[in-house]
Amino acid sequence: MILRGIKTPEHHVTGSYPSFTPFLLASPFVRNAPNLFIERVCRHAIATMHRRYRPVFERVAEQEAFALLISPTDLDLPFYLRIDANRPALRPARQTDEEPVAAKISGPLPALLALLQGTSDGDALFFSRTLRIEGRTELVVALRNALDGEAIDLRSAISESFGLMGPAARVALRITEKIYQQLQHDMNRSADALTSPSTKRLLGLEKRSAEQVTTLSKIEKSIQRRNRHTRPAPSGATKDDFAMPATPLIHK
Asked: With respect to CATH, is domain 2-154 assigned 3.30.1050.10?
């Protein structure tokens, strides 16, 4: 995948969206799923989104059509997304792709979905180190602004895509969301249990370091005061051992 137009360094964007998510559990299954199946799901999803939210695509791609590389850090499956008013595209990205992308957005999938739906502060995601951006940042900002002004409902879009099975799909989505929330809660507790000892040790080291800095500062101030009190007072004229001897004036 070719990344073009890199004008700025990576903008590290960790907040309330951890990378340790239940999507990590699904990653091996998604990664080993048949490509044809994933590509069909992606095509169906982008077609549904384009049909429901065409004005968003038109506003974002008003000046130029462009492609993005979407890289969920908890799914290990990057996606190629083309923003085009007439022919948008979404599919798994491939290493052999020669189509250039204007920018790359990487981060936890829940944060990416929240950005897509406009339910979170895009600036907060970018500047709280939840998301990372490489490439043409102005295009990502334009996409974020367009999404912020549009109420995108992924649940409705997904259930609508099932046609007559829409009501059953909505029930399945609600059950899936409850399972996901419970899994996320359990994974957060596991992460806290694993990292808590290290965090406590780091906090202890930081506290001791701060105490040592304070102690060294006090010692330095004490030495400076002592030097001021013991320094000899400057005398008047000092004798120069290398000066020429004075010669008496001779009057003729």
From this structure: yes
